[in-house]
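User: Predict the complex.
Assistant: Input components as received:
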Amino acid sequence: MMVIMHESATTEQVAGVVSRVEAVGASAHVSVGERVTVIGVLGDREELTALPLEAMPGVERVVAILKPYKLVSREFHPADTVVEVGGVRIGGGHFCLIAGPCSVETSEQVLAAGRAVKAAGGHVLRGGAYKPRTSPYAFQGLGVEGLRMLAAAREETGLPIVTELMDPRDLDDVYEYADIIQIGARNMQNFQLLAEVGRRDKPVLIKRGLSATIEEWLMAAEYVVKEGNRDVILCERGIRTFETATRNTLDIGAVAVVKLASHLPVVVDPSHATGRPELVLPLSLAAVAAGADGVMVETHPNPEQALCDGPQSLPTSALAEYAARTRELAAWCGKTLG
Amino acid sequence: MMVIMHESATTEQVAGVVSRVEAVGASAHVSVGERVTVIGVLGDREELTALPLEAMPGVERVVAILKPYKLVSREFHPADTVVEVGGVRIGGGHFCLIAGPCSVETSEQVLAAGRAVKAAGGHVLRGGAYKPRTSPYAFQGLGVEGLRMLAAAREETGLPIVTELMDPRDLDDVYEYADIIQIGARNMQNFQLLAEVGRRDKPVLIKRGLSATIEEWLMAAEYVVKEGNRDVILCERGIRTFETATRNTLDIGAVAVVKLASHLPVVVDPSHATGRPELVLPLSLAAVAAGADGVMVETHPNPEQALCDGPQSLPTSALAEYAARTRELAAWCGKTLG
Amino acid sequence: MMVIMHESATTEQVAGVVSRVEAVGASAHVSVGERVTVIGVLGDREELTALPLEAMPGVERVVAILKPYKLVSREFHPADTVVEVGGVRIGGGHFCLIAGPCSVETSEQVLAAGRAVKAAGGHVLRGGAYKPRTSPYAFQGLGVEGLRMLAAAREETGLPIVTELMDPRDLDDVYEYADIIQIGARNMQNFQLLAEVGRRDKPVLIKRGLSATIEEWLMAAEYVVKEGNRDVILCERGIRTFETATRNTLDIGAVAVVKLASHLPVVVDPSHATGRPELVLPLSLAAVAAGADGVMVETHPNPEQALCDGPQSLPTSALAEYAARTRELAAWCGKTLG
Amino acid sequence: MMVIMHESATTEQVAGVVSRVEAVGASAHVSVGERVTVIGVLGDREELTALPLEAMPGVERVVAILKPYKLVSREFHPADTVVEVGGVRIGGGHFCLIAGPCSVETSEQVLAAGRAVKAAGGHVLRGGAYKPRTSPYAFQGLGVEGLRMLAAAREETGLPIVTELMDPRDLDDVYEYADIIQIGARNMQNFQLLAEVGRRDKPVLIKRGLSATIEEWLMAAEYVVKEGNRDVILCERGIRTFETATRNTLDIGAVAVVKLASHLPVVVDPSHATGRPELVLPLSLAAVAAGADGVMVETHPNPEQALCDGPQSLPTSALAEYAARTRELAAWCGKTLG
């Protein structure tokens, strides 16, 4: 790291920083400029990160040189991670279509959705049993009962299922039924939850937080991998900006950035990103073109009756055409399907 | 609510919306304009909110007329809520100074901080035993041991303590030691956690999420109050914007907006909002002037040695002067102290 | 529009709004709900927009029903606008590759770039003679001399040129040399400038402002079209958000939204959106897949020597491969080239 | 500046950067870390800023050490700048109340407003003759006629006037009538306009752009001062964020940051920042408490009839009480009035 001193910093203040740095076994190289002194610091990353050098007198700011994540970085692990689940591969040139309803409502609904996903050539069935809702008055999900409905749909269709975990106390239940455990956008920095799923042996899909930087998102993945679980899938689902024409702003650049910075697979959720069904296909195609390893889309047998996110769901009747077009582009991009 | 139809919506589509609305016992009033038809809908708020009318054919958008929160609204409860804890009153004209270290590190550190807060005329001691950290490699807090250190500081100083709860599994411990339970910014939409503290009888301080709208923040409070716990304190701590000169952007307008929209007390955390100690006093004064019911500030006996947020902490040696100035302005604004 | 009254609004206040509305020849329909009264207003859009109804006592807020733009809307003009310039067509299924240096530096540089663009199958040559620079100490462009260099490059390559106009006093010069007049992001709401180019008969390319909503961007286009110039091209170039991993955040959803809302062609500038050359190809492909009518990319014979935006420019040596891939995807999407 | 190389950068790439830097007369100091090499560069700031080092092979990123502004910085000119105009002083401990209508509509209106401002103890009369409006269908201002009405109000009240310049072609007119020339938020990066007013000898008030960083705002001021005009006043008027409860988000922290970073006076416009008259007083008090050198507020004899921004204007009948409270706090803060 580099410590940039104030223009008015004294020689004593510079010496203070140097001795503080040396006290933890790191080395300091002082470079005196015409107006500003800069101290280059070499040493153990974690040790140095913990030092509150910016609180020392005379320090203007501290610039990190190394990235704060390690295990999830491309430098640490140059080859693409391929997550395998129920015969499906995600990442490393394998393209994955995840689809299903926002929330599990009835056995019939989730089965109908599952059949449509299967018929459309989808690879994974999504559906929420625990729902994070802004309003305490809104439908909060069916809980374990919903997990069982998902499992029944898996049994019939053969599709592995991905479902959200919101509370560490539900982990055993979710672990029992899910094939992929989803950490939602609102829990992306629920660090205990991340650590818990990191100690299990099922793949984890981490949605990007509404206002999380790419670096923070990768740090969330680092929490999981650090505990031993290397099967992490990242999911870009739009960030919060000033624009209100779409529900969120799909950060398509993040897909390309993450593919360069990390070995983990990245999928895109165009449904939450836009909140408008007519935008789901163009943004799915954009995601594929930008290099995404999959898309995760909401579909419902009857969006007008949905208990959650109906307005942004594709009707299952439209799924086959959507899936075909998305798959064709994935093939054009050189991806293997599933 | 009002349903605004597309310019191209057909008569059948309008009729479809009307019959959907009437099916849940609400009434619909169709207003046909030159270019657009609008349907006014009257009925039970929760029932209507759950209807995915935007998914119906021909619907352009749905505009809510009523606010989504009820129990926390000024309309529902016109008088200011006054939270009382350990002899301290917050809200309703009572101004409160909350101060302490970011994280509890040692008995000595938290005691030194507590004495400084007491000496400076502060009312509540803050300190984190469970720390949400972006990096899994950073100091994560002392847990129950930290809670005990806080309790010891309370015993000596008489100051009630506020500390963060991150995981529902820690609730019994935090409930045992804390006087006010803090829900951190990253957990503002951890809805299970909100509901859990809503079922207890200790005051809850809810920090605004980094990218939470004021409405979402009030909905988080609604989660707590709905469960029966009416002692909620809101804490503005800066939002995430494009500006990087400060750690976050203190949304001073939110203080004034919330005072109008809700009866709950609002305090401001200038330390997290700015990340720079030299900005803590001016922004604290701004908070007081805007009508805040208190400030919550980080202070440390030795910021240069702090394990967390040292760079933004006031040294305890500067606390008395800071507190005096803040208190004087609160008095000028007509507030009673504590 | 709809006027939503406060819960506490009196009958007199409702009557006041009604009479104010009727005074400008519009009609008001009062709908009294259990808690809130709503007044639907029908009448001339411009007349109504000018009324400061939100300033009237008892008014909570005013909700617009009609979009504020008209001439640029898809409803007003359902068929795609096709802009024709120098034998090139943009929009309506015609895909366009615009490329060239950020700024015109020397005759040799712009000629070399022009030849590379031509050789790569590009359609339009871009290059700035007037440069908006954050710093007054940075290179500000060559002015008219730069325009002449662009014209010389056009003469040799046959490519029409697009260049930025920043000041109405330079309009005659820019009009003389340019084929397409660019309005930069920082001038997107320079309304005089918009009106001036609206009175000329050369196509106008309007870059989206850094923090402009899609609606404001379309209103900027409305300024131009209102004056009589219907040849407007919109250019998405990234918006400003909290994310710093890319220079801006490419709002890929905006491309799809604008294609639905307006008949005007939309192109994407992936160079300014990302600021990183390695992201230019994936984001160009994403733009094409999302439905963009073209891309506008920075290229320089020697990015390391560029006076402006070198770090984000593709070297001209890489242009042919980039263009080929982009063109192939455009063809896959069913576009005609140029 | 510091050049941080990629982990994979070669010795040749490091040497390339060094020779590039030395070619412009600067010196390079190479520091080889375990994983990353950093090159410290010392030399002429402008020369170095112009070098596109990030475009060189092997370079990861470039970190600036010195601030990009100079003339407006506190380091360059430690003492507060005091702008004097028509007997009023702004900055350096002198507090200034600027008030008036959003736009000049009639002689009567501006006179009535001027009298109210004078009676309330205000120091400067504001009013727009040229209005930047999002819609081409909205009232665009009275132009020179409006300037004359302002001058007449000055004549009667003795108050100096501040009015916005939008187009360099109007500069002679605005210069003739105005005492302070305002550059609006949408023109904050209209660099020609900034340079033009920098060549005149009347004070310039620069509103912060909707999405301008503090650094960019100071750079806009640098454009003016560089041309020789040192009488610049900065005006914070809210930035664009995701929050929609207020029209913009008042960045109160920016006031304190600018007071530290620059010697120029800073005023706050709470009317545009919030868009809600009930928030104007609390946010004005917050501005004063944070250290602002003045406030600039919209007032209208009859907000319900205003052609522009009526909903956010204080009625002139409420101005005296507003002004008294604001002034009292300014005095409490140790400011001299006017």
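The CA atoms of residues 6 and 203 of chain C lie 47 Å apart.
Let me know if you want any component modeled separately.
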